[in-house]
Specification:
This is Filamentous hemagglutinin. The chain is of the alpha+beta class. It has one domain. 35% of the residues lie in helices and 25% in strands. It is built from two helices and three strands. It has a three-stranded antiparallel beta sheet, with helices on one face. The chain starts with a strand and ends with a helix.
């Protein structure tokens, strides 16, 4: 089973709505190169969601 990974993006790759809030970076969860979450505003949030997804997969 492919592992969920955390990908960060910076600068112009950050969605406009987040850049307008002053954010210059955001994070996505990806599996096999495909996003499995929308943009997250902190690495901590990305790590927490990643753990939840991994736990769900293990208990499914």
């Amino acid at each position: 089973m492919p592992k969920v990974q955390i990908m960060s993006v910076i600068g112009s790759a950050v969605p406009t709505s987040l850049r307008e809030l002053g954010l210059l970076a955001c994070w996505y969860l990806v599996r096999d190169g495909e996003p499995v979450s929308g943009p997250l505003t902190s690495l901590t949030a990305a790590q927490a969601l990643s753990q939840k997804i991994e736990q769900r997969v293990l208990h499914a």
